[in-house]
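Appendix C: a fully annotated inverse folding record. The material below is reproduced so that readers can follow the format used throughout the book. The structure is listed first as tokens, followed by the designed sequence.
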């Protein structure tokens, strides 16, 4: 069944809401509802798809669609009146589809199923590293299926690092690819460097471990796929970061630094 286990959030207090929830649950969806825009913003990240009645009492429905779409790629379906303009505005505000009120249950379920099939075909697969899962299409991060609340930039940073776990990213490259800096060859300012450090520190705390993101002093950062392994050992870069040297020369050390370290060592 297509809807098996998928969580649907309905935003609105429209007529027939209870029946809609029953229909969705009968087709295998886990459906629940909120009545305010504030609650929608608070809870939409915990779901797989959002249905929004554009005629909310406390919030402009189109504004809500824009805000959710600006922060997430989660599938959105809007409920609009029959006016063609409202349907067009809903699509322009970020909805993936629009259903005219009053709707027919079979049409809603069919449209929802078709949308989710498109999302599954077009979406990149989730990235998994042990207990950590990163869902690009939903812009969600989970640890042991527990949703981790992170900001948009934190997600982009973590996703970039996890996409290429064997790559060591310089600060300049992170600024270019996550923060859209134009000149990757320009010297990284102290303010820009602190911005990266702040986001990395926040991610480590939210992920529950500092070991998911490894810092290589003076060079940059990389993702650690083995952060939750049980043997308690840490990767070579972590040892380098903690002790200053690893016992053997790391490949990213310059020849000048190697010469200085060799000649300054006790004899």
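Designed amino acids, in order:
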């Amino acid at each position: 069944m297509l809807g098996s286990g998928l969580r649907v959030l309905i935003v609105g207090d429209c007529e027939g809401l209870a029946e809609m929830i029953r229909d969705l649950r009968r087709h295998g969806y886990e459906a629940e509802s909120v009545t305010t825009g504030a609650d929608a913003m608070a809870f939409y990240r915990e779901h797989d798809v959002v249905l929004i009645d554009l005629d909310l009492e406390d919030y402009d429905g189109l504004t809500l669609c824009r805000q959710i779409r600006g922060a997430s790629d989660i599938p959105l379906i809007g409920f609009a009146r029959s006016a063609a303009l409202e349907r067009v505005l809903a699509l322009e505000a970020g909805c993936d589809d629009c259903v005219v009120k009053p709707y027919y249950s079979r049409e809603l379920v069919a449209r929802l199923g078709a949308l989710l099939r498109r999302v599954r075909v077009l979406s990149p697969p989730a990235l998994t590293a042990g207990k950590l899962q990163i869902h690009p299409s939903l812009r969600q991060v989970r640890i042991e299926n527990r949703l981790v609340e992170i900001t948009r930039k934190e997600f982009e940073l973590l996703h970039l690092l996890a996409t290429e776990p064997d790559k060591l990213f310089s600060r300049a490259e992170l600024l270019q690819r996550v923060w859209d800096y134009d000149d990757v060859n320009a010297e990284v300012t102290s303010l820009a460097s602190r911005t990266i450090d702040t986001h990395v520190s926040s991610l480590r705390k939210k992920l529950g471990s500092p070991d998911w993101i490894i810092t290589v002093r003076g060079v940059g950062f990389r993702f650690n796929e083995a952060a939750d392994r049980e043997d308690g050992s840490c990767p070579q870069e972590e040892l380098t970061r903690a002790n200053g040297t690893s016992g053997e020369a790391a490949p990213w050390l310059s020849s000048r630094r190697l010469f200085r370290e060799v000649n300054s060592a006790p004899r």
